[in-house]
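Section 5.1 Outputs to date
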Amino acid sequence: MTARETDATNKSGKTPGPMETGAGRTRALVIGPYLSARSQRHAAPTQGIDNSRSPEARIAEARGLAQAIDVDVVDALIATVTQIRPATYLGQGKVEELAERAKSEEIDLVIMDCALSPVQQRNLEKAFAAKVIDRTGLILEIFGRRALTREGTLQVELAHLTYQKSRLVRSWTHLERQRGGFGFLGGPGETQIETDRRLIQERIARIERELEKVKKTRGLHRKSRRAVPYPIVALVGYTNAGKSTLFNRLTRAGVVAEDMLFATLDPTLRALKLPRGSEIILSDTVGFISDLPTMLIAAFKATLEEVLEADIILHVRDVAHEDSEAQRADVDAVMSELGIDVQKPGRVLEVWNKIDAVDSERSLALLNAARRRPPNERPVLISALTGQGVEDLLARVETLLGAERAILDLSLDAGDGQGRHWLYEHTEVLSRAESAEGRLLLTVSVPPTLAEKVRRRFIEIPKRARAAGQ
């Protein structure tokens, strides 16, 4: 424990959390231990090496992640690695150099932009005389601060406990520095490892039971929405791609939209009326990121159920970012892992956002690139900040939804007020007229899930029946 942590414990009576000290903002050093280009070519895929981004882009993202937990980032350094060392990840010379830097700068926290084993984390903490966390621990810390709903909080704690459980083997001195996260770990001592493993497992079991209750509640909410089956349109994308800014522009909601990684964590749903009058449910979701911890993908699967059930997924991309293509690949990979077929026509629509942030030459190149794609795969260029292209996006969504819906011509008794009311509530009424016999003639657009029910309940005019899009 550092002197600052000791002072904080003495004054407050409790150990500070992992990212806190008693002297204000934590002084942090961000280190990007990236393999050299030559070493990357020989690195095994199981080592989790990201070859698609430049070291500069990766360290910039790591700095952004650190700033998202409000630490004072003293510096962000790239440490070129020729070989990953089992004991410390870095070579001995680099460890000594960074230890001297940490000492001279009075660093409280060292953030390693990689996945560390418990042994590597423990050894680096000894060498740096400072708290050390890896990329997974950092993302978990961010999620812990961003979760607002009951489900979000439970999901984060479950992921955190799963992570902590893996750190109990031969890494007890490391655990001493991590006390305070959720307040259930006992004091240091080798004899406590089994006790704490049991406590963690018991807490995991309790959280999983609570999450089952939450999932049942969400299931009831989804069931009630299906009773009034508005199509679901979900926003997904790399973190900080502009999803929440677009969500706010479309729905006039007050979702947090900041130039910060993981500004949004908990999903938000709002009803939205499209230009021709049909309604949808728009869902804003947590942003994806490269090397997202596996336990978080599993833990947030329930949170992402709105995406799994969405009729259309809008993949919002930051085309002004230098790593836009790599970010697209990361988002597609996570969606595929969730069981979403990103290649299915009409399911995923790319939204190229932040075109206001690129110069005219780049804007023209993006426009030409979009036009070269097949019509059903063509992205929509927008600026969620200025509103440019948003009307085109809504029109495209309406067209895609229409392609999935059935257009039915129905004949109703003029006195069937209940049936008429049901159709207006559950379908989109496109036209209304009266026959010479006094019957009410309605042309309605029906979701696929309701088409058969409508045909059974009402009289369809077969000669005028037509499928959507014809």
